[in-house]
Amino acid sequence: MNPNPSATAFTAALPLAPLGDDTLRQRVQTALDQKTKPQGSLGRLEALALQLALALNDEQPQMLQPQLVVFAADHGIAAQGVSAFPAEVTRQMVLNFLAGGAAVSVLARQHGLALTVAECGVAADFDPHPMLAVLKVPGAEHGTADSTQGPAMSRAQCEAALQHGRHLVAGLPGNVLLLGEMGIGNTSAASLLMTRLTGEPLVHCVGRGTGLDAAGMARKVDSLKRALDRHAEATAPLDALAAMGGLEIAAMVGAVQQAAASGRVVVVDGFITTAAVAVAAALQPRLADLLARCVFAHCSQESGHARWLQHLGVRPLLNLDLRLGEGSGAALAWPLLASACCILAEMASFQSAGVSGRQG
Amino acid sequence: MNPNPSATAFTAALPLAPLGDDTLRQRVQTALDQKTKPQGSLGRLEALALQLALALNDEQPQMLQPQLVVFAADHGIAAQGVSAFPAEVTRQMVLNFLAGGAAVSVLARQHGLALTVAECGVAADFDPHPMLAVLKVPGAEHGTADSTQGPAMSRAQCEAALQHGRHLVAGLPGNVLLLGEMGIGNTSAASLLMTRLTGEPLVHCVGRGTGLDAAGMARKVDSLKRALDRHAEATAPLDALAAMGGLEIAAMVGAVQQAAASGRVVVVDGFITTAAVAVAAALQPRLADLLARCVFAHCSQESGHARWLQHLGVRPLLNLDLRLGEGSGAALAWPLLASACCILAEMASFQSAGVSGRQG
Question: Is this prediction's pTM over 0.90?
Answer without folding.
Answer: yes
